Amino acid sequence: MAVSTSSIALRLATPGDVDPLRSIYAASVNTLAQGHYSSRQIAVWAGYAEAPAFGDCILEPLTILATIAQQPIGFCGIEPTGHVASLYVHPDHARRGLGITLLRAALERCATPTRGYWLAEASLLSRPVFERLGFGQVGLEQTDRRGIGFERFQMLRDCECSAAGA
What is the reported pLDDT for 162? Predict the structure, then answer.
């Protein structure tokens, strides 16, 4: 079921949003990654919400927040280069089109990325959202967080893309 666009508002993140976004990030990973990732991977991934660098991950890129009744329910960050730095939705609002809404809004805000294309490292969870908006897989990345391996999909979308719904 799609999220009603009349019930959500989009705005830019501010320093006061960092703590609520930590909670959304951790809840999203802890809940939505079940069945896709091991418990060790989930613990390490969700644990990043408490890292001091988490705030920089929100405030350095242009991060768009989705809210209902002024309460954050999801976010998407994009750098001027076109790198999509984050895309997380609270599990209570997942699988209703909010991820696509957030990603679309971020792409519109960064309509001319300095690289000439948009790039993301997608998880198993977010890959379908990127594909729906015209991103294609260009590689597979093996990364390590605190000694735990992760596989991410390198996704690319050219600025000329006119994917359906984009």
Answer: 47
Neighbours of 6 (CB within 10 A): 6
pTM value is 0.89
User: Could you tell me the CA-to-CA distances from 106 to 30, 34, 46, 56, 79 in Å, in that order?
Assistant: 24, 27, 23, 17, 9
Report the C-alpha gap between 60 and 23 in whole angstroms: 19
Asked if pLDDT for residue 147 goes beyond 90, the answer is no
- Fold classification of 9-119 is Aminopeptidase (3.40.630)
Residues in the chain: 166
- What is the Cα–Cα distance from 49 to 145, expressed in whole angstroms? 13
Buried (b) or exposed (e) across 51-64, using 16+ Cβ within 10 A?
eeebeebbbebbbb
Which pLDDT score, from 0 to 100, does residue 141 have? 86
- Residue ranges covered by each domain of the chain: 9-119
